[in-house]
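Hi team,

Filling in the usual template for the complex we talked about on Friday. All components are listed, including any nucleic acid strands or ligand strings, so the model treats them as one assembly.

SUBMITTER: L.P.
PURPOSE: interface mapping
COMPONENTS: three
RESIDUES: 857
SEQUENCES:
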Amino acid sequence: MGKYWAAFSLSIQQELYYRASFLMERARSITVIIAFYAFWSAVFQGRDTLLGYTRSQMFTYILGMNVLRALVFSDKTWELMHEINTGKISSYLMRPISYVGFCLSRDAADKATQLVSSILEVALAAWLLKIPLYWPAHPATFAVFGLTLALAIVLYFLMSYIVATFAFWTSESAGPRFCFELFLEFSSGAFFPLDVLPRIFQSVFSFLPFASLLYFPLNVFLERITGPLLARGLGVQVFWAVLFVWAARRLWERGLKAYSADGG
Amino acid sequence: MKRYWQVWKRLAVMAFLMQFTNRWSSLGWLGGKFVRLAFFILFIVSIFRHVPSVAGYSLEAVALFFLTFNLVDIIAQILIRGIYMVGRDIREGDMDFYLIQPVNALFRVCSNLVDFLDFLMLIPVVGLILWVFPRILAGYSGEALLMNGLLYVLLCANGLVIAFSIHVLVAALTLRTQQMEETIWMYRDLVNLGRFPVDIYTPFLQVILTFVFPIAVMVSYPSKALLGLLSPQKIVLAFALSAALLAVALESWKRALKHYSSVSS
Amino acid sequence: MNPAPAIRVRNLSKTFQVPVKAPGMRGAFRALFKKENRIVPAVQDISFDIAPGELVGFLGPNGAGKTTTLKVLSGLLYPTSGEVEILGFAPWKREKDFQMNFSMVMGQRTQLWWDLPARETFVLNQKIFEISDKDFRERRARITELLDIGDLLEVPVKKLSLGERMKAELACAILHYPKILLLDEPTLGLDLVMQKKLRNFIRDYNRETGSTILLTSHNMADVEELCKRVIIIDGGRILYDGDLSKIVERYAPDKLVTLTSSVPLDIAGLKALGKVISHNGSSAELEIPRKDVSRVMGLLLAQVPVVDLSIEELPIEEIIRRVFLENG
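RESULT (copied from the run log):
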C-alpha cells in the first residue's frame, strides 16, 4: 500500500507544482458554470419549472456539473498516452508496482485536488449569487447517489483507459481522444441536462454509457430518477462497467504485445 | 508586402503538410470541433422548443450570436494560432531564428501555425450564418440593411483586432517573463463566455466583459449591430477600445523584445 | 589602403543583470519585496576588425563570452556599450538590408521544421530571402552536391542523424548566400568523417562566394584546417588576435619529437638533448626548441639506432591551453 500512497502524494505535489495547468482546468470549469448559470437564469425568467426541473433542481444540476466534472472526469491519461508514445512506460513496467495501481493513485490525486477546488468554487458561487440549492428529501438518496457516483467514476476510468490504449498502436491518438472527450462531455450531460434534447436523442443516450457518468447520478441526487428507472440506470451502469473491464483488459494486453513487438 | 504574402502562404502550406502527416490526429481534432459546434447548435435549437425567447432574443438572434462568436474566434485562430507556441519558440531557440531573419518577428510568430482545420470549420459556420441572415434581415429597409450589414462586417474585423491585441499582450508577457504562456489558455476559456448574448450576464460581469476583458465587444457587438441594437456611442466605443488596446499591445511587444535582447538566455 | 572591414567591433562590452537569490524559503520571500541584482560582465571592452572574405576562428572556453559576442553581432542582444558595425549596419536595429545578407548557424538548434523534410524549410527561406526560382534551383543543386545530401532532403528532419541534420541546417542557412555567416560550434557531436566533410564545405563556400565567416569551435581540427586567423577570448576579454601560425611560434617554441629505437633507450642521455615528456623502454617523446631541431636530430641519429622518428608541432589544444595559462 505504501508505494501507491507514495505515487498518490507525489502526484499531489506535482499537481501543485504544475498549478498552471491545474488552474486552467478550473478556469474552464468555472466559465462553463458562469455561462450556463446565466443562460438558464435567462431561460427561467418568470417560470417555476422547465423540462420537469424546478428552479432549485436546475441550478443544483448546473453547480453539480462542476463538482462531478471534477470528480468523474479528472484523469491523467494524457500523461499515460505520453508515456506510451515516448517509451517512458517501459521503466514503469519494469518496477515492482502494478501499473494500473500506479495510474489509479495518480488519478485519485488528481480527483482529490480538483474536487476540493470545485467544492470551494460551488460553495462560493451559491453563497455569492444566492443560488437556490436542492437537497434530497430522503436520506437514503445520499447512499444511492454515492453508489451511482462510484460506478460513474469506475466507468470513466475504464473508458479513458480504453481510449488511452490506442496510443500503443499509433502516436496520433491525441486528436481522436480530443474528439471522444468532447462527445463524452456533451452526451454525459456535462454541459446541459439531456432532457433539453429531442426525445430521440434522449432515448439513444439513455442506453449509451455516457449518460451514466454525470446525468444519471445528478438526477438521482435531485430525486428525479427513482424506483424502476433508478434500477434500470444502475443496470445500465453495471452492464457497461462489466463490458469495459473485459475490453480494457484485452486491449491493454494486446497493446502491450504490439508495443513490445515494435521494440518499444 | 508581396514577400509577406508569399511567406504567409508558404507557412500555411507547411502547416498543412504537418497536419497531413498526422492525419488521424488532425481528423480527431477536426471531429472534436465539429462535435462541439453540432451539440451547441442542437442545444440552442432544442431549448427554443420549450421557451419562446431567451433574454428577449429569438432563436435566430441567439443563433446569430453563437455563430458570430465562432466566426470571429475561428478567423482569429487561423491568423494568430502560432502565438500559442511562443513559449516553446523561446525555450527551443526558434525565437532567435525569427529575430535574425528579415521578416517581422511578430508576424512570424503569429503565422507559424496556420491551422488548416479551422479553414474547414469555417464552412459550416459561414453556411449557417448565410442561413440565419435572411431570417433576421427580412423586415429591414434597404438602407438599414446596408448600414447594419456594413457595421456587422466592420465590427467583426474590429473583434479580430481585439483578439489579436490580447494575444500579442500575452505573447509580450511570455517573452518578458518566459513563463506566462498558460495565460493564453485562460483567454481561450474566458472567450467562451461570448457564445451566448452577453445580456444574459449580470450587469457587473457585463462591464467586465466590455472594459476589462472585452469579449463582448469582440464577439457580441457585431451581432447587436446587425440586429440594430447598438447605440452610436457604443459603436464609437468599440473602435476606440480596439485602437487603444492595439496600441498598448504593440508597444508592450516592442518593449518585451527590447527586454529579451538585453537578457542572457 | 585596406578595404572597409565587413565586421567592425570597437570597445564592445555587454553586462547582464542576474537576480541574486538568497537560499531557502526566507530568501524566496524576501525576493518578493526586494529584488537584488548582481551585474555580471560577459564581454569587456573588446575590439576587432574582420575584412570581407576572411574566415576567422573564435576560440575560448565555455563562458568566455563567445556566444554573447555572436549574439551581439547577430543583433539578438543589445550591447551595453561600444560600437558594432556589420556591412555598415548596427545589427540590433535588425534592418532588412542587413538581415538579408546575414546568417547564423547555432550548433544544437535548428531552424528546420522537425516534422517535415528539410526541402520544405528551404522553400520557406527562398520566400523569406526573395531568392529567384532560378537561383534557388541552382544553389540548392550546388549545395546539396557539395554536402552530399540529395536524398536526405526528402526525409522528415526528425528522422535524420545529428550529422545529417547539421548538414541540412548549414545548407538551409546559406541558401541566400549571406555575405556574413556566423557558425557557432558547427561540428559539435559529429563523427570524424562528417566533420571533415563539413569543414571542406565551409572552406569551399568561403572561397566561392567570398563571404565573411566567423566560426567558434571546441574542435581544434576545425580551426587548424579552416582559419588563418584566430581570436582567442577568455573572461570576456581578447587574449590573442592574429595569425594561427604566429601563435604557434609564440606559445609553442618547442617541437614534439617521437622516437623509436631498436634497443632500450638511455634516458639520461636523452635528457641532455631535450625535455623528455614520456618514455617507454625503446620509445620516447621529447620537446625540442624549434631552433635546435636540426642539430639535435643529427646527434640523435648518430647516437641511437633509430627505427622510427617523427617531428611534429605540439597539438593545437596544448598551445591554446598555454595561451590561457599564461594570460589567466
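MY TAKE: Chain B touches chain C through 26 residues (CB under 8 Å). The radius of gyration of chain B is 20 Å.

Thanks, L.
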